[in-house]
Amino acid sequence: MKLVVVSAGLSVPSSTRLLADRLAAATGRQADVDVEVVELRELAVEIAQNLTNGFPGRRLAAAIDAVTSADGLIVVTPVFSASYSGLFKSFFDVIDKDALTGMPVLIAATGGTARHSLVLDHALRPLFAHLRAVVVPTGVYAASEDWGAEGLDGRIERAAGELAALMRGLSATRRPAPDAFTVVPFAEQLAAMTEGSAN
């Protein structure tokens, strides 16, 4: 299965990327996954250009293709002004609104204080619910004091286990976008039912 990790960290090294890597590793211990990481920092210019001209650059197009063709996503953003970063939101703004329908998603965020932990339920979860993704019950927030402290590892493992289970259960049954459904005229349906009852 293909697991794509979207990291919106801006610095190098980045606590956001560190959390993303730990979540991916934990998921890999519970499911057979091939991991691909999308670093939004490297795509910032192309994302801005796509927002203004409507066309993705080569690297952005590859990132969008990776995300939309994944069996599961891990998305991690730093907290800015009590919400996800503008770069994070802009990336998902350039993805077709139906492309993540049924996609298993693990949401996570990093911040300087535990007071911003509500970003998971007040910003990230509504965003992916709007995109009709399937968000795992456990989100992971890591404040500065959480690194090396008791509790973070347990949350990571629990969330990763939920994502692995969803990926196994949903990857083969993701519903296609509405325009991919085949509409069968009622007359044909009726003929098929009549033929079946005659046998």
TrEMBL record:
- Claim: ATP-binding is one of the keywords in the record: no
Q: What is this protein called?
A: FMN reductase
What InterPro entries has UniProt attached to this entry?
Answer: CE1759_FMN_reduct, Flavoprotein-like_sf, FMN_Rdtase-like_dom, NAD(P)H-dep_FMN_reductase
NADPH-dependent FMN reductase-like domain mapped to chain residues: 1-147
| Any Pfam family the entry gives | FMN_red
Q: Which UniProt keywords apply?
A: Flavoprotein, FMN, Oxidoreductase
Q: Which domain of life is it from?
A: Bacteria
* The keyword Oxidoreductase is annotated on this UniProt entry: yes
